[in-house]
Amino acid sequence: MTALLRGLLHNRKAMVGFGIIALIVIVALAAPWLAPFDPGARSGRPHQPPSLDHLLGTTRLGQDVLSRLLWGARTSLAVGFGAGLLITLVGTVMGILGGYSGGRTDEVVSFLTNMVLVVPNLPLLLVLAAFLGQASPIVIALILGFTSWAWGARVTRAETLSVRQKDFVKSAEMMGEPRWRIMAVEIFPNLLSIVGINFIGSVVFAVITEATLEFLGLGDPRAVSWGIMLFNAQKASALAVGAWWDILTPCFALALLGIGLSLLNFAVDEIANPRLRTGGRLGRWSALIKAGEGRL
Q1: What CA–CA distance (Å, rounded) separates 283 from 83?
Q2: How confident is the model over 53-77, as pLDDT tens digits?
C-alpha cells in the first residue's frame, strides 16, 4: 500500500489526474455557494448566450447553465463513485472467494460470472431502465452496480489464484488462521493495484453509462445531472438553433472527468505493471546516449 502511494506521488499522470478529479469534487461540494442561481428556476431569457449575468448562458427554459453544471456534478459524481464502489465491492468479493476457495464455490462463482458476461451489458441496462420507467440516479447506480461486476471478478479471481500459492498464504494456512482472515488480511492487500484499476475503470464506465441512459430519455427529467442536461439540450435542438453552450458545457465536463479518471487509471496500471514503464526508461537512455554522442 505504501509503495503504491509513493509511486502515485511520483507519477506525473497520477498528479494531473488527481488534480482534475479534486477540482471537480471541490466544485461539486461547493455548488450551493458557487451556483449563482437556483438550477431549476428560470433566471433569464430562453437560450441567452454567455454574458456577465450568465457566464455559460441559459437553457431553452431560461435556466442558468452554470448553476445546472455545478449542481449536476454532484449527481453525476455520486452515481459514478457509488456505482463504481458497488461494482468493485461485488467483483472483489466474488473474485477472491472463488479464487481462494476453489471447488464447488469456485464453480458457482464462475457460473454466475459467465452468466453476467454472456448478457450484453448496454442492452440489458436499456431494458431494465425502460422497464422501471424514469429511473432516478440512485436506481441507475444500483442497476450498474449489480450488472457490471463480472469483468472485475474474473480479473480478481485470476490474480487470487496466483497469490494463494505464495509462501505467506501457505504459512497462514499451516498456522490455522480462519479462511476469512486469510482472504481479508493476506490476499486482499496484495490485490490493491488490481482493485484500484477496477474501481477507477468502473467509475468511468458508470459516469458515461449514466449520461448515456439519461441522454436517451431513460432518466428522471426532474433530476439535475450532466446526462439530463444533454437530454434537455438535445430535446430543445440546441445545436440547430445555435445554442452551442447548452450542449457543449456538459460534454466538456464529462470529457474532463473522463480524462482525469483515465490518467489515474493509467498511472495505477504503470505502477502495477513495471513493463509499462520501460518505454520511459528507454527514452531517457536514448536521450543520454545522443547527448554523449553530441559531446564527442
Answers
A1: 39
A2: 888 989 888 899 999 999 999 999 9
149-165 pLDDT, tens digit each: 888 899 999 889 888 88
273 vs 234, more confident: 234
Q: What is the DSSP secondary structure assignment for residue 278, as one 8-state letter?
A: H
Rounded to an integer, what distance in angstroms lies between the CA atom of residue 152 and that of residue 269?
Answer: 14
**DSSP conformational letter for 49:** P
- The label of the residue with cell 457566464 reads 55
* pTM of the entire predicted model: 0.83
- Cell numbers describing residue 191: 490485490
pLDDT bucket at 296, cuts 50 / 70 / 90: very low
- For the record, the C-alpha cell of 220 comes out as 428522471
Phi-psi category of residue 64: left, alpha or beta, with phi > 0 → left and psi -120 to 50 → alpha? beta
Q: Crossing angle of helices 2-9/192-215, nearest 10°? A: 60
Nearest to 259 by CA among 6, 30, 1, 16: 16
Q: Name which of 179, 163, 194, 186 is nearest 97 in CA terms.
A: 179
How big is the chain by its Cα radius of gyration, in Å?
23
pLDDT at 3: 59
60 phi, psi to nearest 5 deg? -65, -30
Task: Provide the grid cell at 93.
Answer: 468479493
Q: Which amino acid belongs to residue 42?
A: R
Query: Which of these, 232, 235, 218, lies nearest to 133 by C-alpha position?
Result: 218
| First-last CA distance in the chain | 45
Residue 197: CA atoms inside 13 Å, Cβ hemisphere, count? 17
Q: Is the per-residue pLDDT at 285 higher than 70?
A: no
Cα separation values, 224 from 75, 85, 162, 203, Å: 7, 22, 45, 19
State the residue for C-alpha cell 445555435: 242
Give just the sign of the alpha carbon dihedral 220, 221, 225, 227: positive
DSSP letter at 182? I
